[in-house]
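=== RUN LOG ===
request id: a7f3
mode: sequence -> structure
chains: 1
length: 473
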Amino acid sequence: MRRSRGLGRREFLRIGLGGFASLSLPNLLRLRAEAAESGAEGHLANEEKTAVILVWLRGGASHLETFDPKPDAPAEFRGPFGAIPTNVPGIHISELLPRLSQIADKYALLRSVAHTGGGHPAGSLQVLGGDPDAADKLTPRYPDWMSIAHYLRSGRPRNIPNYVAVNPVDRYDSFTIAGSTYLGPTYEPFRVIGDPSQPNFEVPNIGLKDESQKQRLRERVGLRQSLDQMQHTIDASGMMEAVDQFEAQAMNLLISPEASEAFDLSREPDDVRDRYGRHAWGQQCLMARRLVEAGVEIITTEFDGPLCGRVANWDDHAVNHHVFEANQYRAPFFDQAVSALIEDIYQRGLDRRVLVVVTGEFGRTPRISYVASSGGGVASAAAGVVQPGRDHWPRANSMLFAGGGIHTGQVIGATDARGEDPIRRRVGPQDFLATIYRHLGFDAANIAIPDFSGRPTPILRDGQPIPELSRQS
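=== RESULT ===
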């Protein structure tokens, strides 16, 4: 093969496809052909390209320290924080969230989510993929809703990936908690790794700055010259067209000004960046807003890392964190980032098209536990010092929904006086997923996708969209 100057094909593929996760050519060819045959766009119930931004609280946030405070519970349950009124009469949330308390008219709280997944992997797989199994698994059995939406929305050319994970929702320690499973790696997200609040932050594989490199890529449109040998080994069934489309998308990421601009937070005014917060979570949310304005339809962003405290997640066992110090530490970052995102969605007229969802895999035990810390650090006493914690609690959790044309300024469901179990309007993961699919315009009850064995597998096994969120309800 004759080599050309500048970017070779191998280098182009490395930088152009790196963000799409590992990808084998056989899987690419097979899945692209299947996607074309499935007529996936035909599953849309309407023409409006709605979008979802998922803010994922890895490890499971305490519902009592966020959206379902119980200030009148006995001392062994309630914790030290009070509840404050919001701008919607009758709705109170934790005093740790003053910014969100002022915009309660722009979101709805669901306080009665319950399931059976008591471990981080099982809880995540239930919420994100609808797996009914209560047991932890190393890898998912079913694709998550994000990959399914990406699959069902595939088929038309884009200058920017349609599923972007800004600090991806994908793993918990050695467990994979989300993924495309039998859809294949083609429908994994474009991953943005790193802290976007840092001055040297860059998204790799987006936007070549060297105009000469861009020109050399333009001259290689379709990569026909470099693919001559490959064409001889592939039949004439249209597979090469699929390869060309995928590589064209990769090239668009490198030369498209739209893609480059969408990921470039430096284009935002300083006051906007300040409003979101000059920290990782704030800038992750700002990037999510920029991406959705650029046309991306599925966006996830995970809140974890140093802003959570010593163990870098919301898993506030006493062995990990002093649960109350941890929530007090992280709350200002969380409150600022999420409230700014919600306000921006409304101020920019995106509130009907874009649904924002904030949740983790489960809540925390209402009864406070006391165990010796395993190590000192942010929000954790020195090793051996007994401190308070809250453990896993799939029996009750709260979710926040904003935008999406939903009925806001309300609380759906309720837990008992201690926050242990739903006493009104219990909602399960399947209902949550049905709500997401309804917003995205999918007739989920009538969609099945072939699994590894070729057997049609429904994307929703049961459950109904949460009717209280609909303005028509």
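=== NOTES ===
The chain has two domains: 1-38+208-255, 48-202+269-469.
DSSP finds 14 helices and 20 strands in the chain.
=== END ===
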